[in-house]
Amino acid sequence: MKEAQKLNITKSLELFEEACGLVPGGVLGARKPGDFINGEYPIFLETGEGSRLTDVDGNEFIDFLCGYGPIILGYREQEVDDAVCAQIKGKGFCFTLTQKYQNELAKKLTELVPSSELSIFLKTGSDATTASIRIARAYTGRIKVMRCGYHGWHDWCVEMKGGIPPKFYEDVFEFQYNRLDQLEELMATYGQETAAIIMTPFGHPNHQKMQEPEPGFLEGVRELADKYGAVLVYDEIRTGFRLRMGGAQELYGVTPDLTVLGKAIANGYPISVVTGKKDVMMMAESNLFISSTFFPNSEAFVAALKTIEILERDKVLENIWEKGERFMGKIRALLDKYLVGAELTGVAPMFYITFEKDETGAYKRKRKDFYTQLIRKGFFFSPHHHAYISFRHTEEDLNLTLTAIEESLAYVKEKY
Fold first, then answer.
1. Is the domain covering 10-75+316-415 a CATH 3.90.1150.10 domain?
2. Reported pTM
């Protein structure tokens, strides 16, 4: 199988070299070159439209990262952007006091999200998960937290501990998804001191296969929270407005006390939400402090309202599930045809191709070669993060992607 031609990323590399003298590491977080494949992926993008991205060197890609999740419709979605521009130009968006769109969005959430009775609006996922823990601690008068999943970069949960005193996370304990026994053991020891159990209701651990809940898992967590009087928090930053309009809690039928939302709610505009049961949420009225100059900015509220309108009107999630299930079925057939240790996990809106681990470490080389071929062919996936399907992914996009996946699998099979 012929190897795909390496991309010209000269301008990206030049900008990165410049950035290293201006920003620590050039770029931060999950956008670092080392989080992809050094020397193969672009580092700086120029434009996006629909399902496609163009980098600063003019390379075009069909994109499956969707901004790490916010792009549920497509890039530069005209209706959403027009609504935001009209708000900015016609009324303004940053004021000392709040505009009415807060109320409109909160009412909409109570219609859609099973746990939603009251809501607080913030900007980032980390803002919202941290606020949910503060609310839970105030409500219960307890300190300890049981966690499952990635919940952001703040002190209590970030995985890299540089610059963080141990006392800031010494009361936070981790359990694995679908391991109810681990949580049972933790709660048997710390249950009377536990303020919150925070978890992703759909399993999407970093760098690992995705997991749906095993029978009884979510129900068992709910029962443990009730037994010990802990607040159950669902981190639905990635799953809200993507698996269902009401999130994974609607899909799987288990309702938490608090829900954290973000990403797809506003198609790329910065907003996050803590929403939940009234008695718990009322702690934020006078028992604790949550505030930011930019939390009430209305451009993101307007974007969210318009995005939700489009999601409902155009049956977007039904569209994504239908084409996504068909797409995943065809990927599975390719993985059965080319037995290279590749594995497909996830559900139609969120999926991940990983490689089965082996003692020799060959899976890492296979992964690198597979994703190198895809990016060279013009398909933007990450080797270390799951993919998303958006509304603007067309059948042509998906068919082209299947061809590229088959060619990349054939390349790996021939090489190994």
1. yes
2. 0.97
